[in-house]
Amino acid sequence: MNPELIEKVTRLVVEKLQSQQTSDVKGQESSAGVKFWQHTSNPSTQPSRMAVEVIKAGKEDTDSLIKIKSYQNTNALKMTSTVKASHDKNENYSKKAGIDHPADPVELEALKSKTPARIGVGRAGTRPKTDTWLKFRFDHAAAVDAVYGDVNDELINSLGLFKVNTMVNEKEVYIRRPDYGRKLSEEAKKIILAKCQKGPAVQIILSDGLSSSAIEENAEDVYLSLQQSLKSLGLDMGTPFYIEKGRVAVMDEVGELLKPKVVVLLIGERPGLVSAESLSAYLCYEPRKGTIEADRMVISNIHKGGIPPAEAGAYLGTVIQKVLKYEASGVSLVKKQG
Length: 338
Fold this sequence. Notes:
six-stranded mixed beta sheet; Rossmann fold
C-alpha cells in the first residue's frame, strides 16, 4: 500500500480512538467500543464505515492519495457494465448452486449472511455439488500452501528487517515440535544481541508462524501503520526483525535478551478453509521465560475479510499505550483497569 495513505489512515484512526477515550473520561459511556468490521454482513454490498470515512477524508485533502484498492470489495463502489454482468451471472449461479427449493429461502439467506462457513450449499445425491467440492479443494490447497510456504525475502528486506531462525530447520519438524519454534537458535541470539537496541519501550517482531500467506498479504500494511501510530504517540521503538518458523512464546526469549517494556509479535495464524491469510498481533508487557498465556493479549483476524490491516496497526498503537500506562497486559491489565 502507498505509505502516504497508510499514514493518513493511521492518523485518522488514532484521532478517532483518542477522541473516544476523551469522551469516556468525561462520562460519556460507549458500550460498543471500537468497531472495525462487520463480520455478519456481505463485504461486497456493505463496505465498512471506517473505509468510507477514510476515502471521504482523503478526497478532502488530496485526490492523488486515493488510488489504492480498498480492503473491502470495490466492485460494490464502481463496476463496468461487463464486470457487473459477469458478477450478476456468478451471483445467480451461486444461488442455484445452493439448496434446491429450500423450505424457507428468507431464513436460509439470513443464516448464510451470519457466517462464512459452508452452510446451505446443497447436495447432489449423497455427494457435495461440484462447485462446492471444487471450492473446498481450492481452500484446502490454499491452507496447505500457507503452512508449507516461505515468506519472500524481498518483502522482509523492503521492510528493513533482518532474519533469524528458531531451533527448527524443517517445516515438518516445526509442525511436530511446537516447542522448538518457541526457542531461538544460539546463532539467532548472537545476531539479535549484536544488531538490536537494548531496553526499548516497544519491540516489534514478525514471524511466519503457521501462515506465510498472512505475512505476505498483511504484514506490510500492519507494520507501517503501527510504526506511524507509535511515532504519533511518541513511543520509542526498538530494532524490528523477522523470525522464521516461530511460535508465539518465542517473544519470551526476545524479552529475556533485549528487556523491552512491550513486545509485539505479528504472526501468521493457523489457516482455515475460510481464510488462509489471517494475521494475529500478540502483545505482552515485559515477557520473560515462564510467562503465562493469561498475561498475553491478542488482536486476531487481521486480513482483508476481517480487521483491515492498516486500521489494526493504528489500533495496536493505542493498545500499547494503555499497556505501558498500567504496566500490565492480558488479565492483569483488565484487573488494573477495574
